[in-house]
Amino acid sequence: MDRQALNRIFLSILKEEFDSLSKKDRYLLGHAFGVFGMEQLSLDEIALHEMLTVDGVEKAKDKAFERLKEKVLNSDITVWKWAVRVIREAERY
Predict the structure, then answer these.
(1) What pTM did the predictor assign?
(2) CA-based nearest residue to 81, from 14, 2, 4, 10
(3) What does each of the 93 residues of the chain score in pLDDT, given as a tens digit?
(4) Which of 28, 14, 29, 33 is nearest to 73 (CA)?
(5) Quick one: which of 50, 85, 76, 79 has its CA closest to 64?
(6) What are phi and psi of 49, to 5 degrees?
(7) DSSP reduced 3-state for 76
């Protein structure tokens, strides 16, 4: 199976799950990591915008990341990963 095609599928699923997060979680993760068209900002900049301490931003970002991870693990991505494993095993024989 084409690795680039799989990466596009995984990225599409990740984007879909990212978009389903709350606006605040999207802001925190998007700007902390500079993903999905968002400018990467320092934790200080995010803290100023969100009116939080840097430690508060770090904790909120970690919780948002856990929520995203949970969504992704319960998404179609697990089906795709399983399918890829089965296909690769079949290709060995």
Answers:
(1) 0.80
(2) 10
(3) 577 887 888 899 899 999 999 999 999 999 999 999 999 999 999 999 999 999 999 999 999 999 999 998 888 888 888 888 888 888 887
(4) 14
(5) 50
(6) -65, -40
(7) coil
